[in-house]
Amino acid sequence: MNYAESLLYLDKLNTFGIRLGLQRMEELCARLGNPERSYQVIHIAGTNGKGSVTQMMDAVCRAAGIRSGRYLSPHLVSYTERMSVDGHDISEGRFAELLTRVRAAADEMVAAGHEHPTQFEALTALAFLYFAEEQVEIAVIETGLGGLLDSTNVVDPVLTIITNVAMDHADRCGGTLAGIAEHKAGIIKEGVPVITAATGEPLEVIERRAEELGADVFVCGEDFSAALQRSPEGGQQVAFHSLVCRESEPYALALAGGYQAENAALAIMAAKLMEREDARVTEHVIRVALRTVRHPARFEILMQENLPVVIDGAHNPAGMCALRAGLDCYFPDAPRVFLLGILKDKDIDAMLAALLRPGDQVVTVRPNSERAAGADVVAAVALGMGIDTHACGDPRTGLAEAAARARTAHAVLVAAGSLYLVGGIRVLLTAGR
User: Which of the chain's termini has less CB crowding within 10 Å, N or C?
Assistant: First the structure.
């Protein structure tokens, strides 16, 4: 297959939907020679923040001179964004070449009487194969959904990070906060250290599972913590405190958003544990990594002809709370115009309740996903809250409407609700740069 053909194949795999379970993935990996066993793995799960922590840990590895692979999802624009080696995304040609081999293995599975792999399983197997053939030392792997039955959970990690646990994907992960925590805790392996920012009942679930498996747990807010500060040079920095590490000067952090302090704390703690085993990971390396890390569409601030635009992938109530806190910190007094597109399986009412203030304006569009809620559906919720709302037909039209409103009101424009929306919006905003 060439790249265009590989996209058609992936689209066909959507017919298999989301099916949790490891049997298909184990069989597919076995037929590819178990590439996931060729390198060390840092495995990352959580409701929010896992993408940012994945980028931070990959940045730590690269700053230390460790050949690293990075796998995350979903992508903003291209499937090739999901997997990189040493900071470089896979090429379209290599992507197509490896997916052709994954497809052949999947066809063999079906011929032998096995279920067909899902799209996410095929992509995950492709990433595992890519990392093995590129001879990475460490792969930083983000789970797709949950953890226990997630396709990535065939790896045997050296370090496990669970960012936090909140209500999301409840229909597929047990229906309760405790059930979701059980799924996140499913990535914990025997004797492998766990670093987490979970609290309350989810933390109890994680600690109980870790104790059963003899895994040490390092808890944000108990064993270590971080506080966000404004840097004297501009930007933001993180003051890190730990019971097991010496005090250090604040770390400059390239990523904006108050919630990144907690994510940075997880990454710093993880790097401190790596430092004990690998002399290449040093204090200087950690500082370079946090100062240079990038993660597009996570409280990313762009200027469009003096119009401030915030692009954020918040897509559940907890994410919207974090986005609201970031806006309150960075733009406390500015009017706000939101460009929103949300998937229909999300708690739209709770998301908008967490995000919006009286006096805000909302423009709604339909994200580029089969799971998308209609623009009118989201608009109806906002209208029910008394918010000035306008439903648009497509993202390009919606962006023009929202930008016009923001300029008239001297407001900040905020695009959020789904990564399936903000990726395309980011392309429209950055075209020609």
Answer: C
Q: Which residue has the tokens 């099916």?
A: 19
Rounded-to-integer distance, Cα 423 and Cα 312, Å: 9
How many residues in the chain? 433
Q: What is the pLDDT of residues 186-226, one digit of tens each?
A: 999 999 999 999 999 999 999 999 999 999 999 999 999 99
Q: Do residues 27 and 14 lie in contact, with contact meaning Cβ atoms separated by under 8 Å?
A: no
Sheet with 388-391, edge to edge strand ranges = 300-304, 307-311, 412-416, 336-340, 361-364, 388-391
Query: What is this structure's pTM?
Result: 0.89
CATH fit for domain 300-430, picks 3.10.350.10, 3.40.50.300, 3.90.190.20, 3.20.20.70: 3.90.190.20
3-class SS shares of the chain: helix, strand, coil, % to 5:
45, 20, 40
Q: Which residue, 92, 90, 83, 78, is CA-closest to 2?
A: 92
DSSP 154-210: G---SEEEE----SSSTTTTTSSHHHHHHHHHTT--TT--EEE---HHHHHHHHHHH
